[in-house]
Design a protein that fits this description.
The structure is a homodimer of 293-residue chains. Chain A is built from 14 helices and 9 strands. The first copy, chain A, is of the alpha/beta class and 293 residues long. Chain A has 2 domains: 5-168, 3-Layer(aba) Sandwich (Rossmann fold), CATH 3.40.50; 173-290, N-(1-d-carboxylethyl)-l-norvaline Dehydrogenase, domain 2, CATH 1.10.1040.10. Chain A starts with a strand and ends with a helix.
């Protein structure tokens, strides 16, 4: 299908720039946002955007509908709730949920959408608001491969590394693996810097000595120097990481998977939240690891 | 000083190719090895190599003496033992210890060498035997900066990333930070692959989806695919990593530094050793993390 008009539900810190990149790529948009003023502002500033009165109306006007909201319950609400997407959706439509939520919820939603001759792709992203603005997000997609291929140009307007990960839920599972790796690698950086500090070793020198080899990681190169400077400005906030790690723990529990390291970092982030650092960048984990503040 | 002849003590799996690279760079060598036949073989095949009868004789014949042996006790033995380096060393000489041992021992040895008008550089390496052969080792050096600058051409014959880390012991401390990062990042990779496996996600797809972003690490890109294939051939053996992590724990204890994550991986490697995997590559940590075998 040639997609010309896209439905877009959720114009938050991520959704707004992503919608902007779809416009730049030449798509028309019909949008809905819980806070209506944001949708109205977006439409006022951008020809090619119309505002719907409900998610149902979005679904009536577009065959591809993107949702990017906060929690599993928010996605369930905009899809299944009163005047939700499922009450307006036309047969053959595809819902792309780009929120980071439970893979089990995505599977359940897909079953309900399939009863209406529609389908769901779960496609969470990584790369933060900077990646959303630049159109360089990593997009991890789960669903039917044929659906994925149909909407690939839509993804390409918003992201750079776009991966088909498997059946519905696989995008979310891949995002969860991403967060396991991110948080544990960050914990490693915090321990190494604390260890250097406590033993009179210049942490900046240590970082430059080891980051090109087997110890290297994105977290070390990008967040290590910020930790050394005490710069806790958020790229990605601890509160959001904790939301994601809770999803990791749910999946680990449901599949009897031991994730001891990720669980430990989850607890250390709890400690950081207890120190009032929830809205700081994830690198403020250092305060919980080092015991310094 | 223009270094022409270098003393070299320890022609093991690392030392032998490193000595070979010094020869290629035009240095003469006087060597000693605990197993004499190895030294004799090396000299027989390489003009420019002479074999000394003891570490003391090595020190009598060269102003720069490299040691690369196994443990703190081995270094102490070749430097301070009967017919050790310190009994033959000439004033103004520099001992470069490239073993991975205790930073406290390096400091003690330096004090004793300074009494003889000499000094020590601790310069452990990373990059394994492959890096030793290719001359691409990372070299992390601690000692007086003037000494470091004098012997830099010697390092450049053996390594690629060469970093002056600070006073004596700083090379070892940097290597310990390196091993904290390596082992914790590897643990992250093991958990993510186990998590993917147990939830029906293709681990290879997961790795390719996330390795270019914030979850990326050397361990993920290089050891992740080996874990998925079940390839446990050693790049770096678990037994050797455990030796290094014991040193990390000593330093952490001495400096009251909490390294909870590194300590946990140390225990998981114990479990892998208990399964008979000590001589496998570090990636066999996966067996202890996943509970599979």
């Amino acid at each position: 299908m040639a997609v010309e008009k896209i439905g877009f539900v959720g114009l938050g810190i991520m959704g707004l720039p992503m919608a902007g990149n779809l416009l730049k790529a030449g798509y028309e948009l019909v949008v809905w946002n819980r806070t209506t003023s944001k949708a109205n502002d977006f439409a006022a500033n951008n020809p090619g955007v119309s505002v719907a009165s409900s998610p149902a109306e979005v679904a009536e006007q577009a065959r591809v509908i993107i949702t990017i909201v906060t929690d599993s319950s928010d996605v369930a609400q905009v899809v299944l709730g009163e005047n939700g997407i499922s009450s307006g959706i036309k047969e053959g439509s595809v819902v792309i949920d780009m929120s980071t939520i439970s893979p089990a919820v995505e599977k359940d939603l897909n079953v309900l959408l399939e009863e209406k001759g529609c389908s769901l792709i779960d496609a969470p992203v990584s790369g933060g608001d900077v990646g959303a603005q630049a159109g360089t997000l990593a997009i991890m997609a789960g669903g039917q491969r044929t659906d994925f291929e149909k909407v690939l140009p839509v993804f390409e307007a918003m992201g750079k590394t776009i991966t088909y990960c498997g059946p519905v839920g696989s995008g979310q599972l891949t995002k969860q693996c991403n967060q396991i790796l991110v948080s544990m690698n960050l914990n490693a950086v915090c321990e190494a810097i604390s260890f250097a500090d406590n033993n009179g070793l210049d942490p900046d020198v240590m970082i430059s000595a080891v980051s090109g080899g087997a110890a290297g990681s994105w977290q070390l190169s990008n967040l290590g120097p910020k930790i050394v400077e005490g710069d806790y400005e958020p790229g990605f906030m601890i509160d959001l990481m904790q939301k994601d790690l809770k999803l990791v723990m749910e999946t680990a529990n449901a599949s009897s998977t031991q994730v001891t390291g990720a669980s430990m970092v989850h607890q250390l982030f709890n400690s950081a939240q207890g120190k009032g650092l929830g809205r700081k960048g994830t690198q403020a984990l250092f305060e919980a690891v080092s015991g310094k503040d």
